[in-house]
Amino acid sequence: MARRYRIVHRTEYQYGRPMADGFTTTHLEPREREHQHIVSVELAIDPAPDELERSLDALGNPVTRFAVHRPHTSLVVESTVVVDVGLQPVPAESPPWEDVALLAMAARDDLANELGPYLAATFSTPFLPELALLTEHEFTPGRPIAAAVSGLCQRMFGAFAFDAGFSDVTTPIADVLAARRGVCQDFAHVACAALRSLGLPARYVSGYIETMPSPGEAKLFGVDASHAWCSVWAGDQGWLDFDPTNDQMPPMNHITVGWGRDYGDVAPVRGVVIGPSGTQTLAVSVDVVSENRQ
Amino acid sequence: MTSDVLRYVPSPGRYDEVVDADGTTRPTWQAVAKALGSFDPAVLLERQRQADRLLDAQGTGHLVHEISLAPDRHGVTAVARSVSHPWRLDPVPLVIEAPEFRRLADGATQRMRALAALLVDLHGPRRLVTEGVLPAPLLHSIAGYRPVSEHAPAGPWLVHYALDVVRDAAGVWHVVQDLTDSPTGLGYSLLNRTVLARVVPDGLRTLGVAAVNDHADTLRRALTAAAPAGLRSPRAVVLTAGPADPTYVEHSYLATRLGLHLVEAADVVMRAGRLWLRVLDGLEPIDVVYRRVLDARLDPLEPGHLGGGSGVPGIVWGATGGRLTLANGYGAGVAEAPELAPYVVEAARHLLGEFLSLPLLQPDAALGSSPVFVGDDAVPFAPRPVVLRMQLARIGDEIVVMPGGAGRVLAVGDDPRRPTAQVVKDVWVVGSGVRSRPVPVNAPPQVDFGGSVPKRVADALYWLGRAAERSEVATRAVRVVTAQLLQDPMLSTFEDGAWAVGVASLLRAAQGVPSAISEYEGSSAELVSRELAATCTSAAGQLAALVQEATSVREYLSTTTGRVLGRLARAYPLFVGAATQADDLDTVLVDLAALSGLMMESTVRGPSWRFLDLGRRLERALGVLGAVEASMALHLPPMAQQPIADAVLGANESLVAYRRRYRSEVDFQAVLDLLLRDDANPRSLAYQLDRLREHAAGLGWSGGAALVERASVNSLATIDREVVNGRIVSLDAFVLGVRGPLLELAAAIVQRWFADPVNPTLMRGH
Fold first, then answer.
1. Whether A123 and B304 lie within 8 Å, measured CB to CB
2. Given CB atoms, is B203 within the 8 Å cutoff of chain A?
3. Which of B35, B50, B253, B325 could staple B187 via S-S, CB 3.0–4.6 A?
4. Is the pTM above the cut of 0.80?
5. pLDDT digit string (tens) for A153-167?
């Protein structure tokens, strides 16, 4: 049974002084996927952009680029998305993980292009030797991939502390591994790097999660943030999502926006302004509301 | 085995360019020896020194100095590094016979086509991956590879390509590396040839060495041919990261040779699918960007961008719209990734059905050698491997190879990709049959931007003018005071220190901190030496600013200017530390005068020159006022008036004029007339105001003209009122009425012409 969510993601920049030109690239529009259907998408931009183009990026994610070419001291980007999300079942049976790695390595034709980006060691997902500590006891010979990944997910949840103050988008995973703390982006990068270093295709997934209020309390607005998790390719079983931050496989209450090799491919808002140096401030809020909770 | 022509012993068992396996000098080298005249070490040493001087004059000297003016991160200061050269040109060229070079050129051409096909595939269907030639993880792990397959570039992927090749020990040419992102070396090659042609003009003629200078035209045509379709006269620019870029010398030199604007990111802006140049009065469109900025630093909006907000935001997105060509295309850098090199041969077979004739050099392969001049009397030459960098350009479907290149000498133990020797050989292709073929094209010529001046350039020229004048004022003040002291050391205690206080005030004015001195610590002699040292420091700072501003607008200044700038950059240490010698100061003053002369006589009177001169005139007006204010503020005893008036006149280059006109002892009223009111004295305030008026009119700037007019009327009225009998009645009123309007004009210039701050700032992520 699908759930309907309404997400309002608001990003507000105050520049302090008037900027002559502003260029922004956004990954805010969710993409369709098997268990996810987009009902509506609205992007409100203030000031109104002088040019705007919506397209699909090379990885199939909707991307909206816009520019403002007149003096402006602030920028507000607000996306309002209504989306139906179903549960992605974890298959009862899945192939041994080594078979998946072999299939990925031998992939040809369209499959080779589909998997290729998600086998990469990127700047954010380097193949560090320490990653073996996370995988060696889970990826045992012949273990079905779904079970092994679920084990990795659980192990990471136990080993890492969520610490919003520890890292930002530029923190290398070596630091995260050493300190055993970080945020969802870091854990998604770690999981991707761990899987890819075994030859398993893994996607960095960007999106939202609905945080549950404690029983009896009203859901708070504005406390939710954009979220990130992982998706592993399981051969015939397709892509299986899991969330190492919350130890969920399959993830519950997760709304996918897009995926890439790492954060950089699907950063929600990326921009450059041209003008005098000022004191830039940034305020982000994300509201995720379930519209027909079962 | 020893060459009978050179006193040279090659490495045994390795191919040598000059000596064959039997120890005989190769026939070509008999001819080369004859053409070069002599291999006498003394002659060669002199040639090398001449080459050093010529390279320096081309601007390489001051660019290197400029960068080292501030202590760098290794703590090496200007003084230590300013003696070194960016690179040395070996006086003996690398000589390649035409048939051999033709084979090399064919191999390079074939490789350029293969790499272009590789780029089309990697940024498109990726057949190399889907058909199993290239492992997907390898491709996707290459830093900087992004599968940007949404749009093909408007032009070809590779317009300019460079290739390093080297002979192995058996004499077979191998590929060392490809340069596809922003290939370097063309400018250096052209520069090296220009220099060597001066050093050994007969050699080139006698041997019939193929000319390389056509290749600049070839590249310009290639850029024009790559422009978006349907343009009658496309406009191209050279994009540089600026003077901090280690290859800025080349960017600046190439832009001049190509006749294109050299622009930095701040000079351009992407709007409505086109790239625009910020000029003094608005924006002008650009069609082709010859980018000398790497993929990874081109566009801060692209994922994987390095360097924060640097680069041109939106240029990659813009280029996909088909109205802008990036040469080379964004993403071309992937083709030079070392990880890909082992797959290039197979890729060429797969994509083009061709077998590449040039093999890839294996790591640790033994290399051939060439004699490199080391200057030792006993052993003048050492055998060293030389890596040849070739330059190719693509005009439409045709690929043109420059018949020559740069021979990069390897030091012992060097990675052939990264020579450390800093010695380069010019490359001579001799024998008939190899010419760079100027392709007859009827393409319309590159349209010049005419009188258009980028805002940044006007800004830099204006501050260059001001810095030039301020260094001159400071240097001359030091010179004049030093000379007076030299003639009469007793002056420092003269009249109870009255002279000392007078010249100290004058020196302060020359530092740009006009404040009359009433009290001071220590002796009057100490006061003078303290202010002399401070003025020297100020002059050094202004010289540094001068060289820095000049460097960023090098192509707007005459070619000789580089030589003067190199000398001025080297003069910097003279002002730091111990007592500055009068002779040194004179040398600096002569160089500053030369610079000023070049600015006046060798610069086209366009808007760019106006900004240069605007800065100079404004600063000179402020300078002469500073001297007048400083000396008039004091109540000097009569005996001290004469030397102080001499100093004021001397510091403003007006002493001779004064003596000729008045033939009298100094009378302060006459001094003030000459310095303030006399519009025939090129150092006077009135003269500067006249020039400022002309510039405001020439720029069509009515607001500026009004300000100059007001300054002029106000200052004349103030002078008439406040200057009586050689004294200023009220200094405050004088400053308010004369200096005030000039400062207002200075602010208005910045506001009207340069006010747009254009620093790109990355918006913070979350």
1. yes
2. no
3. B253
4. yes
5. 999 999 999 888 888
